[in-house]
Amino acid sequence: MIKIMVATDLSERSAHALQRAVQLIRRQGGGEWTLVHVIDDDAPAEHVASQVQQAETLLQAQAERLAEQAGSKPRVIVASGDVAEVLVESAQGSGAELLVVGAHRKSSLRDFFVGTTLERVVRASHLPVLRVNGPVTHEYKHALLALDLSRISLQAASRARDLGLLDPQNFDAASALEPVSPGVMLEASLSAQVLETQREDLRKQILERLGQDGLNLTSERLQIHVGSPESVIDEALKRSSADLLVLGTHAREGVSRLVLGSVASRLLATQDVDALIVPPAR
């Protein structure tokens, strides 16, 4: 069973993350999971202590209700301090294998996917992070993998499967093709031939490496197009109607150096689809 940790700021967006966690826990027949709420400690100690007590009372009551839905009661952690530090410590203490968060915009976690918080959490904990964008109406049915030929990018697919977030029989993948010599001007016919050769070589390598990990993707479900990763993935999401985007990331560099390039951070900021960000395992 997968141990899940949910970061919540008690907002509606956090409620979406909680409902996704409930669905995942229920699907696996129960299991250990934890709710974590962080209070900003940049205030008088008495005020912070009061906020901690109030939040803990609210979350304990919520945990009772969630237990009825999920089949197991979540542990509650309320602490004050730095968000990243608390999340990392909580993840290590609970043995969490997946961190679930809402798409926070106006909270202490508002910079979670565009600033240092995610970088620090991913780097220190190596936890995959599932960002839940909206209300949960169904289980994930169709994932889109954003791929290149790096080891980390391909391993992200395997970890998504192991977490139960990717159906190995029903997923798509997309990869951006950038010409080997973009600065060299070629005749139109020769250029098209070179690009097609590059495309087929990339397709063959990706399918072969996925197959080695037990992910037998058909050629028709692998979209390879010329362009930036951002534009290629954006178009692939529209074509595939995927409800989950899976991205691999270098833990040592955080979101600023996602496998697919720095444009991937903008994908997380602009796409409404839920996203799983997967660092390499320890």
UniProtKB/TrEMBL annotation:
Residues 3-132, 140-279 form the UspA domain. The keyword Membrane does not apply. It comes from the Bacteria. The keyword ATP-binding applies. One of its GO terms (molecular function) is ATP binding. Keywords: ATP-binding, Nucleotide-binding. Gene3D superfamilies: HUPs. InterPro entries: Rossmann-like_a/b/a_fold (IPR014729), Universal_stress_UspA (IPR006015), UspA (IPR006016). Belongs to the universal stress protein A family. This is Universal stress protein.
